[in-house]
Amino acid sequence: GRAQMELGAFIAKQCANVRGAHRDEFTSRISYAHGQYDQEAAFARLNDKLLELEGCSGAEQCNRLFFLSVPPTVFAQVCENVHRQARAVRGFTRVIIEKPFGRNSRSFAELNNTTS
Fold first, then answer.
1. Cβ proximity of 96 and 65 under 8 Å
2. Domains, the chain, ranges and CATH?
3. Confidence (pTM)
4. Residues 38-81 pLDDT 10s
């Protein structure tokens, strides 16, 4: 997984080129959660953080969209952990996968089946 870092360091690194009047407003909406792909406990902590940020009671609908920028070898594992520990209680959960999705039609079909 990605190395653990403090939120300020994460923002400084990832938003170095964000400039202008709206920078502070934009960066105030950023949060960072560290965890390992294969640890369900990390996804449970992520879920707790998302519940805090969403401010949803159990009766409200809060949707979740996950953007995966991870190695293709862990797509399935991350999707499984999101499903087990961090999916929306009410509302939808969607996953966007950044990388190429499979090496050929067979690996595409396997990944598609696993992440559906």
1. yes
2. 1-32 (no CATH), 38-115 (3.40.50.720)
3. 0.75
4. 999 999 999 999 998 888 766 678 999 999 888 888 988 999 99
